[in-house]
Design goal:
The chain contains 11 helices and 15 strands. It has helices at residues 13-21, 23-27, 39-48, 66-74, 92-100, 113-157, 210-228, 234-248, 325-328, 339-348, 355-370, and strands at 3-8, 31-36, 54-58, 82-88, 105-109, 172-179, 187-193, 198-206, 255-263, 268-274, 280-282, 288-290, 309-313, 319-323, 379-386. The strands form 3 sheets. Strands 2-1-3-4-5 form a 5-stranded parallel β-sheet, sandwiched between helices. Strands 6-15-14-11-12 form a 5-stranded antiparallel β-sheet. A 5-stranded antiparallel β-sheet has the order 7-8-9-10-13, covered by helices on one side. A hairpin with a 4-residue loop joins strand 9 (255-263) and strand 10.
């Protein structure tokens, strides 16, 4: 596109001089000139052509002089609009005043057109740099807006109401939370009714961060829920999802998963751990113990792998606390980790608490431990307590 230049001068012979000297660039479409004879006319031209990039303005003009015009241009707050001031060589006081008030450069009369060409080239170079930076800034704003929407969508697909619409819903206390390290996260949790007395539940952690992890998270969550609703045993459900992910997943992406099926009537849990952190079992006496799980691979790494399941009986008052490694690997300013020991101590300090109180207690302890250090990983928790 042509660089649009506005010449503002009450001497009409300058118009002829400029169009004659720059005729080749004008014919090639590199420059497009506009002309005004004072500051007022210049402002009117700018209203009609807001994409003018360079103003070549005389200082001494009737009706509105160049210094006043420069003040008006500064009020437009357009960093890509460059003003080159023109005046007699002996008028250095006004030239210095113009430069101190934001003029890009100056030229003295009689104008050396070769020198003016160099000044315009320098202005064009800066204008292109500023416009490029503005375009990048606008792209970042668009990306931030998209990420904000993606964050809202991601949170919307995770359960936010923890009341089950089942006959035996009063026999279980469920709560969960997910705090993403970035705008969108790779962790997720879920729970859903399988029949009138059993629910499927899961917690998972996708490798990586940001948008790729969030997309992989959404796919993994959908597959686990869709497969779980087929009423398959936990190991078969996890194995099926693993094979699908291996066939469709992006190279080097995987997900750790703990998937369980909880019977609200008996308290029995059929679970399979796919490379995830073993959960803790909390007892009414205040003790907490790590659940011993089978060593299975993560999902999305190797197709056709067998997965071994386990079983657990939750007695009345027992709770199963599931979490992602964002909890235990939370770092403070000294790069020390929160660790499993602190997590176990925290869980044991909330004896008899409801599931939401357990999550709040752990979140508070992690926040106190990191003491303002930036969050490096998603922090997700899920608690299932048998009433």
């Amino acid at each position: 596109m042509a660089v649009k230049i506005l010449s503002v001068d009450d001497e009409t012979d300058l118009e002829v001089l400029l169009t004659q000297y720059f005729r080749r660039k004008i014919r090639k479409g590199e420059y497009e000139f506009f002309f005004a004879h004072n500051g007022l006319e210049a402002l009117q031209v700018l209203l009609k052509h807001p994409d003018i990039a360079i103003i070549l303005s005389d200082i001494n003009m009737p009706e509105m002089d160049g210094l006043t015009l420069l003040t008006k241009i500064n009020e437009m707050r357009n960093p890509s609009l460059k003003c080159i001031m023109v005046s007699a060589y002996g008028d250095m006081e006004n030239i210095r005043h113009a430069m101190n008030n934001g003029a890009f450069d100056f030229a003295t009369k009689p104008i050396d057109l070769d020198d003016l060409q160099l000044t315009i080239d320098k202005a064009v170079e800066q204008i292109e740099y500023i416009r490029g930076a503005q375009a990048e800034h606008n792209q970042l704003l668009d990306i931030q807006s998209d990420l904000s929407v993606a964050r809202e969508i991601q949170h919307a697909i995770l359960p936010r109401t923890f009341r089950l619409k089942m006959d035996d819903a009063d026999k279980v206390d469920i709560c969960a939370s997910m705090l993403a390290a970035k705008d969108v996260g790779g962790d997720f949790y879920d729970f859903f009714p399988i029949d009138d007395h059993r629910i499927g539940f899961t917690i998972a952690d996708v490798s990586g961060k940001g948008v790729p992890a969030a997309i992989f998270m959404a796919v993994s969550r959908t597959l686990i829920k869709a497969t779980g609703l087929r009423d398959l045993p936990s190991a078969e459900c996890v194995s099926t999802v693993n094979d699908i992910l291996c066939g469709e997943s992006v190279e080097s992406m995987f997900v750790t998963v703990f998937y369980g099926i909880y019977d609200l009537q008996t308290g029995m849990i059929d679970y399979t751990n796919g490379g995830h952190n073993p959960p803790f079992v909390l007892h009414p006496d205040g003790t907490a113990e790590e659940l011993k799980t089978e060593s299975n691979l993560v999902l999305g790494a190797v197709a056709g792998m067998p997965f071994k399941s386990g079983s657990l009986l939750l007695n009345p008052g027992d709770a199963l606390y599931l979490y992602t490694d964002g909890v235990t690997e939370a770092e403070n300013m000294e790069h020390s980790l929160f660790g499993e020991s602190r997590l176990k101590d925290t869980l044991e300090s909330v004896r008899g608490a409801e599931s939401s109180q357990m999550i709040e207690a752990v979140s508070a302890k992690v926040k106190e431990f990191v003491d303002g250090a930036p969050q490096s990983d998603d922090i997700t928790q899920l608690v299932i307590r048998r009433k």
